[in-house]
Amino acid sequence: MIVISEKDMLKCVTYGDVIEAIEESFLLYEKKEFTMPHRMHIDQGKNTLLLMPCFGKDYFGTKLVTVYPENVGTGIHVVNGVVVLNNAHNGEPLALINGRILTALRTGAVGAVSVKHLSPDHASKLGIIGAGVQAFYQVMSAATVRKLTDITILSTNSQTGAAFEQKINEHLPGINTYVAKSAEELLENSQIVITATTAVHPVLPEREDLLKGKHYVGIGSFKPDVREFPKSLYSIINKVYVDTEHAVTESGDVCYPLEQTWITKEQIQTFGGFLMQDQDRDAVKKETTLFKSVGMAIFDLVVSQLIYEKAMEKGFGKKIAL
């Protein structure tokens, strides 16, 4: 068995590698070529524990992840976790993988696949709401599928926003970056908008005029009482694209609009189903579009497999005996 650290993971794979693997996992989801029990979701006050197993053809993986929103500013990450990857043919444990970075990588790639297929090809201005680990990987992944010229950042903490801007400048030199003072300012300067927050109330304004004509990626809402998007957005979209059918019950950005009849069930479509349909993709890219991700274990399995095989090929990871 090998232990694969954050450092080794980032040496093993590129953002492009992970995006390609995630795109394939969307198709696997539609083809039902896996066994994925509904994830165990346990709340303890404001904190959450998620247990996410998934079985594939050659591997199975189990992710144990925690989300502690009040860790912000303490030096301890909001999201922590581990992934255990096993041989599906004999059950042998093969790898213990940093679950925090794996989650960040695969979720960033999930967002980027939606950006690739739902935003205009010429889109170059990105707005990111949130300035945590996930926000960083969303930006880096989006920059892999679109030639970004401008990135606008919105954070509830000015110091965090400034530090995030500096980090982006270090990793994506040559791109113009701004720290917005309001969501309205961010919308005015963005063609793609990604929300990666732990907010329980919408982080965007009830302004149809500012909301129109953009692609939205929702990452933060993974519980029914957590929402990032306003009512006005649902009035100007044709569909809500989701990574998994479970989003209908797990995310406040899907279940609440359904309860309020802002949208109908017929407007909800899995993103893998969209990819498999023969339709005019260019026409969809001209619409106001919304992709909502809550995450699923098949993403973790596919990316864990990729990282493990790359680590074995390149000689990364520390061997341990159980």
Secondary-structure blueprint:
Layout (H helix, E strand, L loop, with lengths): L1 E3 L1 H7 L2 H17 L8 E5 L2 E9 L3 E9 L11 E9 L5 E6 H20 L6 E5 L3 H13 L4 E5 L3 H14 L4 E4 L3 H6 L3 E4 L12 H4 L3 E4 L12 H4 L5 E3 L4 H4 L1 H8 L8 E3 H6 L4 H5 L3 E4 L4 H18 L3 E2 L3
Parallel strand pairs: 1-6, 7-8, 7-10, 8-9, 10-11, 11-14, 12-13, 12-14
Antiparallel strand pairs: 1-15, 2-3, 3-4, 4-5, 5-6
Helix pairs in contact: 2-3, 2-13, 3-4, 3-13
CATH superfamily of the largest domain: NAD(P)-binding Rossmann-like Domain
Order of helices and strands: EHHEEEEEHEHEHEHEHEHEHHEHHEHE
Q: Which radius of gyration do the C-alpha atoms yield? A: 19 Å
| CATH class designation of the largest domain | Alpha Beta
Strand order of the largest sheet: 9-8-7-10-11-14-12-13
Strand-residue proportion: 15-25%
Mean pLDDT equals 94
The helix count comes to 13
What is the domain total for the residues?
2
Task: Compute the separation of the termini in Å.
Answer: 8 Å
Please state the overall shape, judged from the principal axes of the Cα atoms: globular
Low-confidence stretches: none
Strand count, sense and barrel status of the largest sheet are: 8 strands, parallel
Secondary structure class reads: alpha/beta
State the CATH architecture of the largest domain: 3-Layer(aba) Sandwich
Q: Remind me, CATH topology of the largest domain?
A: Rossmann fold
Helix content estimate: 25-40%
